[in-house]
Design brief:
Protein name: Acyltransferase
Largest sheet: 5 strands, mixed
Helix content: 10-25%
Distance between the termini: 46 Å
Strand order of the largest sheet: 2-5-8-10-11
CATH architecture: 3 Solenoid
Pfam family, one: Hexapep
Organism: Psychrosphaera haliotis
Strand content: 15-25%
Radius of gyration: 18 Å
CATH topology: UDP N-Acetylglucosamine Acyltransferase, domain 1
Shape: elongated
CATH class: Mainly Beta
């Protein structure tokens, strides 16, 4: 986490952060002003990361970002805006929604053997062996 200008950083429950993630809350100590009016231009609304968000390796999360519950941030992605959709994958530079309606789990042991997700995983493994 790099210093910010006093805005909040809110991180929900059960989030997972990979290595080398950068969360940047503002431009401090490099402040930006309009030359004519003197108005402070570098405004930030803070950063909000919902519950069960998985942030991939080397991702960069900039000021004024919102990631909704269940989101996944792709490795090396640059997140520069608010995403108001839950259970989506954001990736790229700049990040955009590349897949909606996803769910992630920490490991297959957390899946019920009766679940569609577990069966899908086993079918995929079987295909690879054939």
């Amino acid at each position: 986490m790099l210093p910010n200008d006093g805005n909040q950083l809110l991180i929900g429950e059960n989030c997972m952060f990979s290595n080398n993630v950068i969360i940047r809350g503002g431009e401090y100590p490099h402040l930006i002003f309009d030359l004519e009016s003197g108005e402070y231009l570098d405004k930030s609304d803070g950063i909000e990361i919902g519950n069960r968000v998985w942030v991939g390796e080397g991702a960069y999360i900039n000021k004024s970002v919102r990631l909704e519950n269940g989101s996944i941030v792709g490795a090396r992605s640059v997140v520069t805006k608010r995403f108001n959709e839950e259970n989506c994958v954001v990736a790229g530079n700049p990040a955009k929604i590349v897949k909606s309606g996803v769910q992630w789990v920490n490991n297959k042991k957390s899946l019920s053997k009766d679940s569609v997700m577990y069966q899908s995983l086993m079918n995929e493994k079987a295909k690879r062996l054939n």
